[in-house]
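Exercise: predict the structure of this protein bound to Deoxyfructosylglutamine.
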Amino acid sequence: MIKTRTGRRAALLSAATAIAALVLAGCGSSDSGSSSTSSDNPLGLITPGQVSVASVGDLKPYTFTDSSGNFTGFDVELFKDVAKRAGIKKVEFTGQDFSGLLAAVANKQFDVGVAAIGVTAERKKTVDFSDGYLAGFLTILAKPDSNVSYDNGLAGKRLGVVQGTLQETYAVKNFPKASLVRFPDNNSAISGLNTGSIDAHFLDYESAKTYMQKYGLKDVKDIPSFDAPAGFAIAKGNDALKEALNKGLADAMEDGTWKKLYQKWFPGSPLTPQYLPKAEQTAAAASPTS
Ligand code: SNW
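Solution:
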């Protein structure tokens, strides 16, 4: 089901699969001792001086690989900026399926997970998170001529979700009359929508917007997910790294870097006041129209 766009992505995916196998076999944390903090490794990184980041390659415009296989997007540029502020010289992104991402961070295969990962109490059982940096909507997309309706709970419809996402959890709870179809990533789900194997796909709002523009799809419903703002996932107990990232995030918000990146990657979307420089914060938070 996984669509590979470049040979590099294929290689990354097979590396990720191998890592997932190691984690399943229970031998993934054998070198975890190397990530404890020390004077030459104050942030407790797996490789001192370098932060290895688990991400996904098809969550445009949050995090995605460009035609050369390089990671880019809002989350990627924000994370790189924050890492630099934390004094980390090198940032290396690796793509994998979303469903294995938190386990890979928890097992210290990666220092951080960055992929518009909403912070929830459930996920906090597995990993720690930085402060939030992005709060938005979850969107149901359908073909333009479809009769999919949110009001009847998508009864009898085949609804796509990416495995392990908040969309999956939300759909299980709120759309019991829909048949859920789980996909490893958004690209494969959108192919399914375009070819008619599913009736709708449920994904992050900004990604939905890019697919709407590309394929003429219809926004059936935007569901607020402000109670689960995205944060950077960090292995439990690595407080030095968490604090350094939080400080970097706060500084990036206060000096307008967050705002600049937000407007670059999400043009026209409402700004979240609390992430703006203090002098610009207002009480009014608008919402996107569907
Ligand atoms: O909860 C939202 C948050 O408010 C913001 O809009 C960014 O996305 C979210 O964190 C939800 N993201 C999904 C999740 O955390 C899917 C992430 C993905 O597909 N990689 O499960």
